[in-house]
Design a protein that fits this description.
This protein has 234 residues and is mainly beta. It folds into two domains: 1-30; 32-233, Sandwich (Jelly Rolls). It is built from one helix and 15 strands, in the order αβββββββββββββββ. Strands 1, 4, 5, 7, 12, 13 and 15 form a seven-stranded antiparallel β-sheet that branches. A five-stranded antiparallel β-sheet has the order 2-6-14-8-11, with no helix packed on it. A hairpin with a 2-residue loop joins β9 (148-151) and β10 (154-157). The longest helix is centred in the first third of the chain and has 23 residues, at 3-25. It starts with a helix and ends with a strand.
């Protein structure tokens, strides 16, 4: 065999091995996926906050942070934990994150796929509503940063998310956080708006602010663990 032919075979073989390794490392990479995280390394820049409550309402017990999934789930997996007491019967508990590197002033049609751990039965009964069936999961995006706004001693949010079981211009309803009938321990559930994608326009810098949150009709404590968030452009 000539040396040049041998070199060509070795080079081609090495290229195939490298390509195969890259494919194994990234089996689900798609050019349409704008963002995805399972929070393995960190909270990945997601910020937590609450809105739709009065300054006079006390003992809301709002907490958030990077945490392991709770028992009986796999505690080696990480998540973003959020928790609050709904004193207003309408509390909105949310996560937000800025997404960069998009085309400026361009419409994107987004599908949100959310995995989270919930311990609340869909058919459960509680004060004001069901801890599972009356807490509604929403996701959306805007060109400006979502923020709570104080007016007349009441905090609202500066986007149209709708109210409880209805979505709005800036956020769509993905369903409720019910993990099934008669559930009393944490289970992983998934929610998506694949049947009703949301169209949003980026700002002049090619940015969008993502938002995921719960609009609650249950007047009690809700503690959730967001374990995977994926946003795909259709």
């Amino acid at each position: 065999m000539h040396f040049n032919s041998f070199l060509l075979i070795v080079t081609v073989s090495f290229s195939l091995i490298v390509a195969s390794c890259k494919q194994d490392l990234n089996p689900s990479i798609s050019p349409n996926i704008l963002y995805q995280s399972n929070f393995k390394q960190s909270q990945d820049g997601w910020q937590a906050d609450i809105a739709d409550y009065s300054t006079h309402q006390q003992d809301i017990q709002f907490e958030s942070g990077w945490a392991a999934l709770p028992s009986p789930l796999d505690s080696t997996r990480k998540s973003v934990r959020v928790s609050s007491m709904n004193r207003s019967d309408d509390l909105f508990m949310f996560l937000k994150k800025k997404l960069t590197g998009l085309q400026p002033n361009t419409d994107y049609t987004l599908v949100f796929d959310i995995e989270l751990a919930s311990a609340y039965g869909t058919n459960s009964i509680g004060i004001g509503g069901s801890p599972g069936g009356s807490v509604y999961l929403k996701a959306g995006a805007t060109a400006t940063e979502p923020a709570k706004v104080l007016g007349d001693d009441f905090y609202t949010i500066n986007l149209d998310k709708g109210n409880q079981s209805t979505g709005g211009k800036d956020a769509v309803l993905l369903g409720n956080i019910g993990a099934g009938d008669d559930v009393t321990s944490y289970k992983l559930i998934t929610r998506s708006n694949v049947e009703s994608p949301l169209t949003v326009r980026t700002n002049a810098q090619g940015e969008l602010w993502l938002i995921v949150g719960t609009d609650s009709g249950y007047e009690g404590l809700t503690t959730l663990y967001y374990s995977n968030i994926k946003i795909t452009a259709k």
